[in-house]
Amino acid sequence: ERERERVQISQIFSGCVVTAFAMLFFSYFKELVGKEVTVELKNDLAIRGTLHSVDQYLNIKLENTRVVDEAKYPHMLSVKNCFIRGSVVRYVQLPPDGVDVDILHDATRREARGG
Question: pTM here?
């Protein structure tokens, strides 16, 4: 019984941590709207494009897209705009000028303090 309660508490806590990090990334990605990013999906497809929008689930809309490895994914050449479900994203490569390390550090500290 105690073990089951511990697991439930752990699951609730980890859910809160995931939600907090998702909101931190959501806030950050909103600042990158209009910049070029590369999104690598869990199926190894990498798409580069201009970030049009992002929502609280980290779903991403890209415009002016192109596939990084066109030879491997020729069927994707005609895709110019796309919606990417957040749960299929492995990585998002950010533009070098889009990363303000000081702001990220401050936001991470605030989030760790709970505020």
Answer: 0.69
